[in-house]
Amino acid sequence: MKVVILDGVTVTQSDLSWNSLTAKAADMGVSIELNVYPRTKPEETAGRIAGAEAVLTNKVVISDEIMAATPSLRYVGVLATGYNVVDVEAAARRGITVTNIPAYSTDSVAQLVFAHLLHVTNSIAHYAERRSLWPASPDFCWIDTPLTELAGKTFAIRGLGNIGTKVAGIAAAFGMNVIAVTSREPETLPHGVDSVTWEMALAEADVLSLHCPLTPATREIINAESLSRMRRSAILINTGRGPLVNEADVAAALHSGSLAAYCADVLSTEPPAADNPLLSAPRCYLTPHIAWASHEARIRLLAIATDNLLAFVNGHPKNKV
Fold it and tell me: Could you tell me if 59 and 121 lie in one domain?
């Protein structure tokens, strides 16, 4: 069976490999011809997957046209939870199974949410980078930034899936009041989490964290109008999807001082264009889409991707989308 991995380096980086896939396949008596490409440009996709029965992709697009050009294709494994890189309707018409990797990075993403939040509230990097100035302080301590305690503050969440629920639990452990905009029934909410409207979340949030999927209804839910409803002291965190926010409006709010800070691990285009307004906005803290990428999360991703493929080979596909 010819299997092609189109952008394997995003998962393995320099500390993991795809050898576990071929080894587990061999243990199950499955013969795999594995072709791994670190990265693939759009114009290279069709040529690289020619004759393949299975393709694994993280961010390389598998369109209807690509599928049409690859009649041998029977399986597409997305190396992520989101699967918008695959035309799933076209895949269904063509009898191609598509799978994803659910819930592998929940702990890692939730951890980065609070890494961002604590960076803003405690200014750790600021003080660590200026440690050479401490000896000149006339006092035993040296403080030149506001320091904020989280206990008692309101933490609002948009989207209460696996990651949102994990984030809610951590916020509660900090002693924060947790509210959520969610479609979940009240009796299914985690203990201590109150369901509120979007308008209430915007108005009451000291911290607002976005964990909802990107849909036509949620695209740019953060915009000039919604930002105007938030407190000037509010911190906005986005580890969900870049297009959940209007980046120009967020940058304008930061420049005007009507938003205290924006912390994001995702942007509307990745890598960002050089003129993205957030790159030069004050109090804007960006990480380059790393929330999912801890060593432990990538090990889980590799294991699930392998199990997904071999389950398909054995005629019992799982994690189908």
Answer: no
Report whether 167 contacts 113 (CB < 8 A).
Answer: yes
Q: What does residue 171 show for φ and ψ, rounded to 5 degrees?
A: -60, -40
Q: Check if 74 is active-site.
A: no
Tally of structural domains, the chain: 2
CATH of the domain at 33: 3.40.50.720
| 65 and 138 part of one domain | no
Q: Say which of 94, 119, 219, 289 is annotated catalytic.
A: 289
Asked whether the beta carbons of 308 and 77 are under 8 A apart, the reply is yes
User: Mean of the pLDDT values across residues 19-36?
Assistant: 92
- pLDDT number for residue 47: 97
**Best CA proximity match to 47, nearest among 34, 60, 66:** 66
Of 270, 283, 300, 316, which is the active-site residue? 270
Residue 205 is assigned to a structural domain of this protein? yes
User: Rounded CA gap, 223 and 134, in Å?
Assistant: 41
What pLDDT digit, counting tens, does each position of 250-292 carry?
999 999 999 999 999 999 999 999 999 999 999 999 999 999 9
**157 is a domain residue:** yes
- Asked if 116 is an active-site residue, the reply is no
Q: What is the mean pLDDT of the chain?
A: 96
Give mean pLDDT, residues 140-158. 97
Residue 43 sits in the same domain as residue 158: no
Domain residues for the domain of 90 are 2-104+295-313
pTM confidence score: 0.93
- Clarify whether 270 is annotated catalytic: yes
